[in-house]
């Protein structure tokens, strides 16, 4: 149909190395990028601020986590704690007079160092034990943030982000906050697509598939895993700072609790491990599907079609959420990315049956 | 001194109550090799089941067996519908599946049955037992004794014919198939048994703090117990439980006033981290456990 191909054929190495090998894909990406850049012009501020902006930021967070979970195969159940470190570090740095651009980088570095320390502690172990160690990290960081008044400003305090400007653009209006978040998310996306093709990315994949086999071919498992934790935590830390400055603007410890970590893992899994498009789709799906379903059912309940209590409605997001995780694991373990891939492959050579992508 | 003794005893008893929750985790891990992150939610569901049966007007001694039967069936259903399709998948898939189950139950059960705390009256009474200067909580005392009995019973159970089959399944699925053991049924039974352990834990914890969703947060101390004691060790549950309970009560008893509260989670986290760094297979666990 719109691809108008009989298959994908490359006649030069250069054509084969391109990020988007098919012209239609390239055009699609450019169109989406233009649409995303112009979003403040045609999306109403309500939708931009409460749906599109969080979607962009959580996609960046899912991309950071999927580097660790999807490429390197290391589970992390405390990623919200990494983002909390980034968020709090950036706010305190800006308050101490550090320029915002530098504060973003420094907060990412702080998050990366702390994340790599916990990762290093957990690197002797795999699977279940790594889950438990990162879970412990989540609780420890939570406790430190809540109980040290110098960080959180007191147990139940909210910390307002100071006014900042990024590269001489003041980050005050909704559009500027959106553009900053979009810029970071696009940067991460491009980085992620390219890191898969570097020696570092291939080392990560080798570690994921079998770590001692990777050691045999000369990849140092300990160093590579530590690098994975460091890189992923850096990305997560900066994303946390972006989340604080562009979306929340008043930070409390509960915004980075254990449930948020689980939500992030769900985004990565629902989207598809280690996939770029999966991170965007998964973040959007996990973020928006419960909201829409709850809205639909509460509308039905309000009109008297479905007899459900208020208590049931308030627990509905949790139910949808759990059912979503279970459903995807059982029915499509490769996630939304695989569903997208199936549809794309079908249309690639439509009306014929088989594609060689 | 009396304060320390009181913290020590109440910590040990609380720890034994944790080991009730941890027992279900170990039962499933020992036979199916599945880390069951839904055990906290199973305990909560079991607490609701006991409350529901009692709200029909039945006495607690009839309600607990009925709830146990319900939870045994629930465990079988979970294995049949969810876990059986996960055979041979990477451990992250299984962990996430049990986590999804945990989230689903935490929404579904309080959503349908009501989220306000429900009382369970086990007929134990609330007056503390006083020995010398030390006050002992009656519910935790009975809970501790029941935990010891239940752990003893599971130790004996693993020596019966069925228990031997479960141990064989935990060693190697394929070899068990080869000698004619139904692996699926064994795993199903282990989930059922974990459901029964959850009923005892749910009833006791429910009577001490009321049945609501917070019961599912028992997962975290239970995980610490399991990691410390060894993921595949039934006696480890008792030792780990007492250690986690004592450390998690005595240290906050002195530090909470200085550090500003809720140091219990910190102690639990540190126990998990230190165990994983020093001795990942726990006190009584088998060393090859590291390979999962």
From TrEMBL, chain A:
Transmembrane domains' residue ranges: 28-49, 55-72, 79-98, 104-123, 135-158, 178-195, 226-250, 256-278, 285-306, 318-337
**What's one Pfam family the UniProt record gives for this protein?**
BPD_transp_2
Q: Where in the cell is it found?
A: Cell membrane
Q: Does the keyword Cell membrane apply?
A: yes
Q: Which InterPro entries match?
A: ABC_transp_permease, LivM-like
User: The organism sits in which domain of life?
Assistant: Bacteria
Keywords from UniProt, A to Z, are: Cell membrane, Membrane, Transmembrane, Transmembrane helix
How does the entry describe its membrane topology?
A: Multi-pass membrane protein
Gene Ontology MF, one: branched-chain amino acid transmembrane transporter activity
Its Gene Ontology cellular component terms are: plasma membrane
UniProt protein name:
Leucine/isoleucine/valine transporter permease subunit
Native source species: Paracoccus haematequi
From TrEMBL, chain B:
What biological-process GO terms show up in the record?
amino acid transport
Recorded hits in InterPro entries, A to Z, give: ABC_transp_permease (IPR001851), BCAA_transport_permease (IPR052157)
- List the GO molecular function terms: transmembrane transporter activity
List keywords of the entry alphabetically.
Amino-acid transport, Cell membrane, Membrane, Transmembrane, Transmembrane helix, Transport
Q: Which residues cross the membrane?
A: 7-29, 49-78, 90-109, 141-158, 186-207, 213-231, 238-255, 267-285
Tell whether Nucleotidyltransferase is among the UniProt keywords: no
Task: Provide the primary localization.
Answer: membrane
Q: Could you name the Gene Ontology cellular component terms for this entry?
A: plasma membrane
What membrane topology does the UniProt entry give?
Multi-pass membrane protein
Compartments (UniProt record):
Cell membrane
Determine the domain of life of the protein's source.
Bacteria
Lipid metabolism as UniProt keyword: no
* Family statement: Belongs to the binding-protein-dependent transport system permease family. LivHM subfamily.
The protein, known as? High-affinity branched-chain amino acid transport system permease protein LivH
Which gene is annotated as encoding this protein in its UniProt record? livH_3
């Amino acid at each position: 149909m719109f691809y108008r191909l009989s298959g994908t054929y490359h006649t030069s190495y250069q054509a084969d190395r391109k990020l988007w090998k098919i012209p239609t894909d390239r055009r699609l990406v450019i169109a989406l990028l233009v649409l995303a850049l112009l979003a403040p012009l045609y999306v109403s501020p309500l939708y931009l601020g409460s749906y599109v902006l969080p979607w962009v930021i959580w996609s960046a967070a899912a991309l950071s986590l999927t580097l660790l979970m999807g490429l390197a195969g290391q589970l992390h159940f405390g990623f919200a704690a990494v983002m909390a470190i980034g968020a709090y570090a950036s706010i305190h740095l800006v308050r101490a007079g550090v320029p915002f651009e530098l504060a973003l980088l420094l907060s990412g570095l702080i998050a990366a160092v702390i994340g790599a320390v916990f990762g290093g502690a957990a690197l002797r172990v795999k699977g279940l034990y790594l889950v438990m160690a990162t879970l412990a990290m989540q609780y420890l960081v939570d406790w430190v943030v809540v109980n040290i008044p110098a960080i959180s400003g007191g147990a139940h305090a909210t910390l307002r982000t100071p006014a900042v400007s990024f590269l001489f653009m003041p980050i005050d209006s909704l559009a500027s906050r959106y553009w900053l978040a979009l810029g970071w998310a696009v940067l991460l996306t491009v980085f992620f697509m390219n890191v898969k093709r570097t020696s570092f990315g291939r080392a990560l994949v080798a570690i994921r598939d079998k770590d001692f086999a990777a050691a045999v071919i000369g990849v140092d498992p300990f160093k590579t895993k530590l690098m994975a934790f460091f890189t992923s935590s850096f990305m997560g830390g900066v994303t946390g700072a972006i989340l604080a400055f562009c979306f929340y603007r008043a930070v409390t410890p509960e915004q980075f609790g254990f449930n948020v970590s689980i939500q992030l893992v769900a985004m990565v899994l629902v989207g598809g491990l280690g996939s770029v498009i999966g991170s965007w789709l998964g973040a959007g799906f996990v973020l928006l599907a419960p909201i829409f379903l709850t809205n639909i059912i509460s509308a039905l309940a309000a009109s008297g079609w479905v007899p459900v209590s208020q208590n049931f409605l308030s627990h509905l997001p949790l139910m949808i959420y759990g059912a979503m995780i279970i459903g995807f694991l059982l029915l499509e373990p490769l996630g939304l990315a695989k569903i997208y891939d199936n549809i794309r492959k079908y249309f690639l050579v439509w009306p014929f049956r088989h594609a060689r992508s | 001194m009396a304060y320390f003794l009181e913290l020590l005893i109440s910590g040990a008893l609380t720890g034994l109550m944790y080991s009730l929750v941890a027992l279900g985790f170990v039962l499933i891990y020992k036979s199916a090799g599945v880390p069951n992150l839904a055990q906290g939610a199973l305990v909560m569901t079991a607490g609701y089941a006991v409350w529901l049966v009692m709200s029909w007007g039945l006495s607690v001694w009839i309600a607990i067996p009925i709830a146990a039967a319900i939870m045994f069936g629930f465990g079988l259903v979970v294995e049949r519908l969810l876990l059986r399709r996960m055979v041979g998948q990477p451990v992250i898939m299984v962990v996430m599946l049990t986590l999804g189950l945990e989230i689903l139950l935490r929404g579904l059960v309080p959503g349908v049955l009501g989220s306000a705390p429900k009382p369970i009256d086990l007929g134990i009474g609330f007056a503390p037992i006083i020995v010398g200067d030390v006050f002992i909580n009656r519910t935790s005392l009975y809970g501790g004794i029941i935990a010891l009995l239940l752990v003893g019973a599971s130790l004996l159970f693993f020596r019966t014919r069925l228990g031997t089959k479960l141990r064989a399944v935990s060693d190697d699925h394929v070899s068990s198939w080869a000698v004619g053991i139904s692996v699926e049924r064994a795993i199903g039974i282990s989930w059922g048994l974990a459901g029964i352990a959850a009923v005892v834990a749910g009833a006791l914890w429910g009577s001490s703090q009321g049945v609501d969703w917070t019961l599912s947060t028992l997962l975290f101390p239970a995980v610490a117990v399991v990691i410390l004691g060894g993921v595949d060790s039934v006696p480890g549950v008792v030792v780990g439980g007492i250690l986690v309970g004592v450390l998690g009560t005595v240290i906050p008893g002195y530090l909470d006033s200085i550090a500003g509260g809720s140091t219990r989670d910190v102690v639990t986290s540190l126990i998990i981290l230190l165990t994983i760094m020093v001795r990942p297979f726990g006190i009584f666990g088998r060393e090859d456990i590291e390979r999962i």
